[in-house]
Amino acid sequence: MGKVAMTLNGSEAKNIYPAITIAVSALASGDEVLIFVLPSGLPVFVGDKIAELNKAVPELPDLEEMFESYQALGGRILVCELGFEVHGLKEEDLIEGCEVVGATTFVSEAQGAQLTLSF
């Protein structure tokens, strides 16, 4: 069992789909997975944005189902605390299951990752 650490620095389908696809695959293979959401990626994890992205790209797999699988398999989503002020959001606006942390926490948690990716 290994560890996969990802940074997510965008809120478009081209950022979200590859990250979630690889993350779910790694979890299903027994790896620990951390996704660190940088400020540009934060809007996806608020309200029904995942559902909106899912509808915007109907030819791709169901993003909502993949995200549910990610959480069910124990994947963690660490959201950078700096993004809230940038987007005028509050922690309460996040979807369930996200952890708000600073970059130093992510760096510490990602120690020992055998694979690091950025989207």
Tell me the name of the CATH class. Answer: Alpha Beta
Predict the CATH topology.
Hypothetical Protein Ychn, Chain: A
The H-level CATH homologous superfamily, spelled out, is DsrEFH-like
Point out poorly predicted stretches: none
The number of distinct β-strands equals 5
Shape: globular
Question: What is the terminal-to-terminal distance?
Answer: 23 Å
Topology:
Elements: E1 3-8, H1 13-28, E2 32-37, H2 49-56, H3 63-72, E3 76-80, H4 83-87, E4 98-101, H5 103-109, E5 115-118
Parallel strand pairs: 1-2, 1-5, 2-3, 3-4
Primary descriptors:
119 residues, globular, alpha/beta, Hypothetical Protein Ychn, Chain: A
Describe the structure.
This protein is α/β, with parallel strands linked by helices and about 120 residues long. The chain has one domain (about 5-119): Hypothetical Protein Ychn, Chain: A, CATH 3.40.1260. The chain is about 40% helix and about 20% strand. It is built from 5 helices and 5 strands; from the N terminus they run E-H-E-H-H-E-H-E-H-E. It has helices at about 15-30, 50-55, 65-70, 85, 105-110, and strands at about 5-10, 30-35, 75-80, 100, 115-119. It is globular, with a radius of gyration of 13 Å. About 30% of the residues are buried.
